[in-house]
Automatic annotation (TrEMBL):
Its cofactor is [2Fe-2S] cluster. SUPFAM superfamilies: 2Fe-2S ferredoxin-like, Ferredoxin reductase-like, C-terminal NADP-linked domain, Riboflavin synthase domain-like. It comes from the Bacteria. InterPro entries: 2Fe-2S_ferredoxin-like_sf (IPR036010), 2Fe-2S_ferredoxin-type (IPR001041), 2Fe2S_fd_BS (IPR006058), BenC-like_FAD_NAD-bd (IPR047683), Beta-grasp_dom_sf (IPR012675), Cbr1-like_FAD-bd_dom (IPR008333), FAD-bd_FR_type (IPR017927), Flavoprot_Pyr_Nucl_cyt_Rdtase (IPR001709). PROSITE patterns: 2FE2S_FER_1, 2FE2S_FER_2, FAD_FR. The keyword Glycoprotein does not apply. CDD domains: BenDO_FAD_NAD, fer2. This is Ring-hydroxylating dioxygenase ferredoxin reductase family protein. Residues 3-97 form the 2Fe-2S ferredoxin-type domain. GO terms for molecular function: 2 iron, 2 sulfur cluster binding; dioxygenase activity. It holds the Pfam family FAD_binding_6.
Amino acid sequence: MSHKIALNFEDGVTRFIDAKVGETVADAAYRQGINIPLDCRDGACGACKCFAEGGQYDLGDDYIEDALSEAEAEQGYVLTCQMRAESDCVIRVPASSEVCKTQQASFEAAISSVRQLSDSTISLSIKGEALNQLAFLPGQYVNLRVPGSEQTRAYSFSSLPKDGEVSFLIRNVPGGLMSSFLTNLAKAGDSMTLAGPLGSFYLREIKRPLLLLAGGTGLAPFTAMLEKIAEQGSAHPLHLIYGVTNDFDLVEMDKLEALAARIPNFSYSACVANPESSYPHKGYVTQHIEPKHLNDGEVDIYLCGPPPMVEAVSQFIREQGIAPANFYYEKFAASA
C-alpha cells in the first residue's frame, strides 16, 4: 500500500510521488529522484520544512522545537524528514522545481474528439497510454503545444483522467493559433504534446462552504473540481455562479445539471452580461452573489475568469466588508 503525495513547488510545477507506509516524505521523494531541500534528516535543522495543504499524516516525536514549533505544526507546517503520510497529501515546497532537480512532466497523446460547443467555445479531448500516468490536482492546467509549431497554450483540465483521456474547454479566439488549428485542421488521431501539471489554483480540502465563480471558459477547472467532489462527497454546501457575455457562450449546462444530481448539497446558477439576452438571469456574477453565499466570511471562494472579472469580484467582496477564510483565484487571457 502507498499514498500519493502532490509536491507543489514555488515555480508552479507539481510532481506526484508515491510514499510507502511508514516511509518519510523526504525519503519517498529522494527514492523517486526529487531532492527536497534537506540537511540533517533528524528533525533538528528545519531545512526540509514545508506546508501540508491537505491530507492526514504523522509528524512523529523526533524533531526539536527549533526545527518546528508547536504553533507551526498546528498551522500545518511539517518536516518532510519526519512526516509519514497516512492518506494522500498535498505539500507546498518552498523551493523551485529546478532547485529540487525535477521538472515538468511531458506526455504524448492523440486527439480523441474536437467539438464546437458554441461560436466561442471548443471542447478538446485527448487520449493516450501515457496519460494513464498523468496525475494532477483538480483545477490545475497544462501547456499544450500547438501542432505544427513550437508554441504552447495553457489550458485547465475540464475533467478528471479516465481511461487515459482528459478534456479541456478552449475559447475560440478568431485568428488564435490553437483556435485556428482546432477549427480548421484538427482531426481525431492527431498527435499532441502536453507538459505539466502546473498552477496553484486547485481544490483544497473542503473545511467550510464553497463559493465557486466562473467566467466563460473559466468554467473548465470547476467541472474537474466538481467531478472530484462527486467522487469523495462533501459535508459542506457548494454553490457555483457561472457568468458569460452572450447567450451562445453558455456551455456545458447539461454537465452542471448532471453534477448537481450527483452532489446532494451542490447548487448552481448562470448569468449573461448582455442586456439583450433572452436568458432569465442577466448581469454580472457579482450581481448574483447573495449574503448567504458569503456566509459572514466563513467561506472559501474559488474564482477563475478574465482579469476584469477577477478585479470586479475582489472589489465587490471588499465592499461587503467581509474577509473570506480563503480566496483562491486564477486570471486568464486569450492568446492570439
